[in-house]
Predict the structure.
Amino acid sequence: MCESTALLHYMQAAGSMMRQFKRSQRLGGQILRDISLLLERDLADVAPGMLTFTHVKLTNDLQHAKIYYSFLGTQENRRLVEEYLAREKWRIRSRIGKQLRVRNIPEIEFKFDPSIEEGLRIEQLLNEINSENTQE
C-alpha cells in the first residue's frame, strides 16, 4: 500500500513536470515568434544588418525569459541594436504581453548569441583550407 502511494505521487509529480516543461516550451516558442515579427522590422530602421532571434530560455516558473539574438553587420550597428533592446525592453515586454495568454508576463532580458557569427567564421576558415589544398 505504501509503495503504491509513493509510486502514485511520483507519477503525479513527473506528469506535472512534463506539463510545465511543455508549457514553457510552448510559451518560449510563442515569445520567439512574436518578438521576431515585432522587432525585426523595427530594428531594420535602427541599424542595417541581419537580425535573427535564435531562441528563448524561460525559467521553470515562467517569470523570466532570456531572449537570444544574433546580428550580422558592423560592430557599430550591433552596438546600436544592443542599445535599442536595452532602452526599449519595457515597451517590448508590454507589446509581447498583449500577444501572450498568460497571467503574468515574463521579465525579459536580451542576450547576444555569437553562434551564427562563429559558424560563418568556421565556414570561412574551412573554405580557405579547401582552396589552399586545391592549389597544391
Observations:
- Residues 85 and 111 are 10 Å apart (CA to CA).
- The mean pLDDT is 82.
- Residues 2-46 form the longest helix (45 residues).
- The helical segments are 2-46, 75-87, 89-99, 115-135.
